[in-house]
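ERR on first pass: missing label on line 2. Operator R.T. fixed the label and resubmitted. Corrected input:
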Amino acid sequence: MTLFAPGSTLWLLGHEMRLYWRNFRAGRAGRGARGLISLVIVAAMLVGGGVLAALGLHDVQVPINPISISLAALATAVVFTLMLSQTLSASSEALYDRNDLDLLFSSPIGPSKVLFVRSLGVAGGVLTIFALIVTPLLLPSVIWGHPGWIGVFGVLGALALASTAAGLLLAMALFALIGPRRTRTVAQVLAALVGAAFFLVSQIRTILGAQKSNSLFMEIERQAQEGRLHPPPILGLPLRAMLGEPLPLLAILAGSAILFAVAAAALGRRFSDAAAATQGKTAARPAKATRADARRAFAAGPFLATLRKELLLISRDAALMSQVLLRVLYLIPTALVLSRNAAHGAGPALAGGAGVVAFLAGQVAGSLAWITLSAEDAPDLLAVSPARIQTLRRAKLTAAMIPVGLFLIVPIAALSWFQPSAGVWTALGAILAAWSSGLINIWHQRPGKRSDFKRRGGASWMATIAEMLVSALLAGATGVAVAGLWAWALIPLGLAGAALLSLRRSDVQIARNLRTR
Amino acid sequence: MTEALIVRGLDKTFTKPAVMDLDLTVHAGELYALLGPNGAGKTTTLRMVAGLTKPDKGEISIFGIDARADPGAAKAITAWAPDEAMVYDRLTPLEYLEFVAGLWNVEPKAAKARAEELLAKLGLAGEARTRCEGFSRGMKQKVALAGALIHDPKLLILDEPLTGLDAAAARLVKDMLQERVDAGGTVILTTHILEVAERMADRIGIIAGGRLLAEGTLEALRAKAGEGKGGSTLEDVFLELTAAPETQTGGAAA
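pass 2 clean. output:
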């Protein structure tokens, strides 16, 4: 830390990076060989994909024409919205995350510098996520035949900076408009909407029921073929930068860096004031005791008391609600397509849609069960109570299933109205997928404080992958059953059962696993 | 005399021994203070009694119930409040107490009345429906204490109950504990504030290096410690008993 002058931006940045690295290492500690193996497998798959892409694209030159320009601009917009979703969430959290903020703001270091470094951390975090996915896929092509494509990393960096600036501006605007009590929740919900925005826009035709194309990409292609596509010159910048043209790349990088620096400099003092204002303001306003409150009886017994507690905690967890909301948003077009196809008796699309519903049920249930079962702020309280652990687990699992049931009611009811048998199969598949995800989360808990559970990355890799696999198998079984091929549905169903059996842990094994953490 | 707690031959080793062959007896209706320097084994001992840490060896009996053989029955009449309040930031005190009462299977109507009474007593009636996330450490400690008392435990175990409390809150908690003992309840607590043990405890146990060095009333400890040479306050007695042999030698030489 003596490399840079104490108090300088680089010195502060070094401090942030050290903390980030240590947190990362602490997060990785204890995951053991299995986690490492999973990581190696995923990395190998990505690198394999990258090598295949490099082989296939070695002699391909990307043309600069209206189609490629539009597609690159579209891809840039998609990545920007996805990044903005992350940075908006991170920027609003930064206001409430006390950790060392009070120490930094009480020091002689200026608030703009603190915000600049903290924002750089947000941008670095989001860039890392995208770079981890893109690097193994793209690097082989960069090395073998297309060195100019290294510009993609520059564009990603520029997007990370721009989205961080936009996220910061949005978070501060929300703070000014709705105050500290609501900003966190609204920002999380908004982040989910932004994250799903592109998907929803691309599915407008699906939602509205257009007769032909349901894809934005196909629409662009058709317009280009008909010679009606004339993107403005500025839209060509992302593609040219991605292909390594120095001036467009420099323009994009400089523009983003300036936007970022201006946002950090302009918002520094406001951010410091806002962060100070959030202290102790995250709670809901003291509610006046209503007559209903006064009359409402306490829950009786450990099951009902735990169920009520978990439902309250889920409903008050803005980050968790935004994760669930994101998946519900993805479900809307699927549900509409499903209902429409059910009404018109379109078999394959109906089967696919039913599978998607079952898969999403498993995924949402997994997210919720992971929180209710593993995130416990007072584990000692449960341990010293005479309540049986099985009762508490059952209550926590039930709490995770209730929201899943609520968000599935509409699509399944609509489906059942048009095709009752498809509705029954979909409901069965969704219930099985949700319950399986819950069981996996019981068997492979990773206990911790609720505040540490901001993102799903904290869950066991194995549990996450197993959940996806089992949900996918059950989704397959659901789709096949809806298509009327019941006997064939037994194959994925059997595979899912076998996977569950291999993942199963007895109470003794669960307890031993928890003790060794 | 009925014994609230009997501990015999308790052993626990983590990477190094934390508690060694510990014997402890707490009579029903008394306030027992367990004192010791940092890392002496106080919290480990109490966690084993509360059923949170599994002993390597030894017996624990709570009001005649073998806590190792029948932990459920022992837990039903015990409450544990550690120095870090076990509360949920996103629940209100009333919701928290509802949950705790449910865990101990307290009849809902009685639990609600008791929750409101406890919150009023602890000066939290006005905050009963405000989420705990904005609370100070002292307020959270009070909520946790209400949680420990909601099922009217026969044995109340408190680890550093006065940590983080201001003078007024500390007085309130001390008065509540005294009231509880006067009403026949049994309280075991650890504390770093020797004045609390000196003023409130019926008997005091001094633990160091995982072993119980001495146990008894303040007078008995004074007699055991100094026999005239160590002074008369509990602090003198504590320092005399817990000083390492080499420190004692050094001290004498100095």
